[in-house]
Amino acid sequence: MSGHSKWANIKRRKAAVDAQKGKLFSKLAREITVAARQGGPNPDANVRLKAAIEKARSFNMPLENIQRAISRGQGTQEEGEFEEITYEGYGPGGVAILLEVWTDNRNRTAGEIRHIFSKRGGTLGESGSVAWMFERKAEVRVRANREDEERLLEALLDVEAEDVRAEEGGFVVLGRPEALQTISEAVRRAGFVVEEAELVREPKIRTEVHGEEAERLLSLLEALEDHDDVRAVYANFEMSEQEVVKALGEE
User: Fold this and answer.
1) Are 28 and 56 in a shared domain?
2) How many domains, in total, are found in the chain?
3) Spatial contact of 50 and 43, defined as CB atoms under 8 Å apart
4) What confidence tens digit (pLDDT) does each residue in 43-61 have?
5) Domain end marker among 49, 81, 113
6) Cα diameter, the chain
7) Is 94 exposed, middle or buried (0-12, 13-18, 19+ CB in 10 A)?
8) How large is the average pLDDT for residues 191-220?
9) How far is CA 1 from the centre of its chain?
């Protein structure tokens, strides 16, 4: 899964740039606000809010920003009226794509998402067409050296981690959704840096893409990631790291 891992690291760097511009913090604040509105302001009783806060912390979002977003979720401001929608479709090479979107205008967002798919060789599908290919997981990205793997595994012995994968610059720990906070805390207690912690949709199966299809697919995924209403983009592709680098013009 080297290609998929390379894409994940590229997305991470893009997110860091977005954070500098304030764009990422705006998306994270919306995520916290909606979670607080839907499930209440107490993260111990609201798994989605806890995950949203954990993700915001991993991007060094200031505590006052987090608290302000939670407060908005308890009020009547416009942010609390955002609707959560899942879009499903296919990209070049038959790759399944799942989008999590929060919008205050369903018709506008649907039209824009459909346009992005059609312009870049994808097809927007019906509800349920690809969701079955993904499952909810807690995902914690850990900054560490390869020689730290044994120490990391020891730190995870007493928590509900299901898988640990080595990636560029560290490791990715996967577990059941409700174990997100316990995994993150165990990693921090062991002295590691948590770069990102969130609930994700992990593909159950993957589809290989190559050449021009790989380039078109990554162009589509980038355009979807950049849309202001899109919270997260998941795709079940598999490609070589070299093809990811070539398609995105990475050094």
Assistant:
1) yes
2) 3
3) yes
4) 888 888 888 888 888 788 8
5) 81
6) 51
7) middle
8) 89
9) 17
Eight-state DSSP code of residue 129: S
C-alpha closest to that of 117 among 225, 223, 37, 199: 223
> Could you tell me if 14 and 71 lie in one domain?
yes
CATH number of the domain bearing residue 89 = 3.30.70.980
For residues 84-105, average pLDDT: 93
The pLDDT-based confidence of 1 (bands split at 50, 70, 90) is: very low
Here the tokens at position 245 are 């680098």
Together in a domain, 17 and 67: yes
Same domain, 30 and 116: no
Range of the domain at 54: 2-81
How many other C-beta atoms can be found within 10 angstroms of the C-beta atom of residue 182?
A: 17
Per-residue pLDDT of 124-165, as tens digits, reads 999 999 999 999 999 998 989 989 999 999 999 989 899 998
- Please give the pLDDT value at position 175: 94
Which tokens go with 173? 């720990």
Asked whether the beta carbons of 15 and 59 are under 8 A apart, the reply is yes
> What's the whole-model pTM score?
0.78
What is the model's pLDDT at position 66?
Answer: 92
Long-range contacts of 157-165 (CB under 8 A, 24+ apart): 158/186, 159/183, 159/186, 162/137, 165/1, 165/5
Q: Tokens in use for 236? A: 């079940």
Secondary structure (DSSP) of 1-65: -HHHHHHHHHHHHHHHHHHHHTHHHHHHHHHHHHHHHHH-S-GGG-HHHHHHHHHHHHTT--HHH
Q: Give the DSSP H/E element, type plus range, for residue 151.
A: helix 149-155
Look at 181 and 99; give whichever has higher pLDDT: 99
